[in-house]
Amino acid sequence: MRRSKGYWVWGLFPSRETNLLNEIKAKVQSELKSPSFDTHITLTGPYSNVDESFLNKLKTFAESNAILMLNFNGYDFKQEMFKSFYISIENSSHLKQFRKNIYELNKFVLENNYSPHISLSYGNHEINEKKILISKLPVFKKPIKMSKIAFVEVDEDINRWKILESFDLN
Q1: Is the pTM of this model over 0.85?
Q2: Could you tell me which of 64, 60, 42, 61 has the C-alpha nearest to residue 111?
Q3: DSSP for 77-121?
Q4: 80 Cβ neighbours under 8 A, 6+ residues apart
Q5: How far apart are CA 147 and CA 120, in angstroms?
Q6: Mean pLDDT for the chain?
Q7: Which of 54, 98, 101, 136 is the most exposed place for a label (fewest CB within 10 A)?
């Protein structure tokens, strides 16, 4: 069962990539209405609660890990609220290891069905709208940098995603 409240670790992007992704997200959300949220890739979670030591470990982890390059698999969608329309990301060996290393800091449910993605719209939208929209969006040819990790408080019941702390990757 999906947990709607808790804490997650997100990956964030440098300003150039964030600006590009936000432009695409704005275009998508002009056609597919969505609550507002920061552009991100979910890495781990949910955690029901954490303490200060986890945040310190997360900071140290960021300082000792390099920027991660993420490869695009294209646009995709599902008939799920929080995967309504997104950019699919390759679940590379580097990304798998990165997640596993965060898992070692503070255990969470390490699902084998992790489907990395950058959400562009949350909501319940018509499949045909999504199919048409894909043809209007730019094609990515180069990987994107993930340059930060963020500790995020989530309450999906009230559409709130609040970044509490973020740490630059080395």
Answers
A1: yes
A2: 42
A3: --SSGGGSEEEEE---HHHHHHHHHHHHHS-----TT---EEEEE
A4: none
A5: 19
A6: 93
A7: 136
- Closest C-alpha among 161, 133, 141, 148 to residue 25: 133
CA angle, 130 then 36 then 51, to 5°: 120
What's the CA gap between 41 and 9, in Å, rounded?
A: 9
Provide the 8-state DSSP code for 158.
G
Give the Å distances, CA to CA, from 12 to 2, 18, 58, 75, 135.
23, 8, 14, 19, 26
pLDDT in tens, 48-73: 888 899 999 999 999 999 999 999 99
- Mean per-residue pLDDT for 112-119? 90
Domains of the chain are 5-168 (3.90.1140.10)
Question: Rounded CA gap, 43 and 116, in Å?
Answer: 8
State the Cα torsion 34-121-128-17 to the nearest 10°.
140
How does 136-161 read in b/e, with b if 16+ C-beta sit within 10 Å?
eeeebeeebbbbbbbbbebebeeeeb
- Distance (Å, whole) CA 148 – CA 66: 9
Nearest 5°: the CA angle 82, 115, 130 is 50
